[in-house]
Amino acid sequence: MIVHLLTPVSRGSLNEAAEQSRVESWESDLRQWKKSLPPDFKIDTMHPKDSRYRTIFHLYLNYYYAWITMGKVALVTVARTSPRSHLQPGSKPSEPSDLIVRQSRSCAKAARKLLLLFENLTNTGNITRFSFTDFQGCSIATIVTLVAGIMERDSGYEARVTFGLDCLRKMATGNITAKMGVKFVEAVQSITNEAAAK
Hints:
Elements: H1 2-6, H2 11-35, H3 53-87, H4 98-123, H5 132-148, H6 157-171, H7 176-197
Helix pairs in contact: 2-3, 3-4, 3-5, 4-5, 4-6, 5-6, 5-7, 6-7
C-alpha cells in the first residue's frame, strides 16, 4: 500500500482512470434506468397494437442510441487502428486502451439491438413511411454496424446491413431528404467494404 502511494502516477493514467470511472457511472445509470421501467413497458411482451407501442419503442430506441453515442468515438478509433496496421506494416500504431475497446464493443452491440428493434417494428406492422426519429435511429445503427464490420464480420453481418438499408429505403419512400440519407449510408457501406478488404 505504501509503495503504491509513493509510486509516481502519470497525468495520462490519472485521466484514464477518471474517464473510466465516468464511463462506468454513465453505463450504470443507463442500466438502472432500463431496470426501473414499469413491467408493462417491456416492449418484448407488449401487444403490437397497443396504443403505447411506438412511444415505448422510442424509449428503447433512445436507450440504445445513448450507448451508441457514448461509444461511437471509441468505435471509430478502433476501426482506424485496424487498417492502419495492415497498410503501414513498418510502423506499429498504438493499441487502443481496454476502455476504448470495451466502449467500441458496447457501441456495436447497441447497434445490433437497435436493428433488432426495427426488425420487430417491421414484423408487427408498426413501421411508418417516414419518421425522423425512426429514420435517424436506423441510420445510426446501420452505420455503426458498417464501421464495426471493418474489424470483424460475423455470420449475421450481411443480413443486418441488408435489413438496415432495406428498412431505410422503405422509410424514405416519397421523401427526397430521406433518400439522400440512404445514399449517404450506401456511401459509408462502400467505404467500409473497401477498408475491410484492405
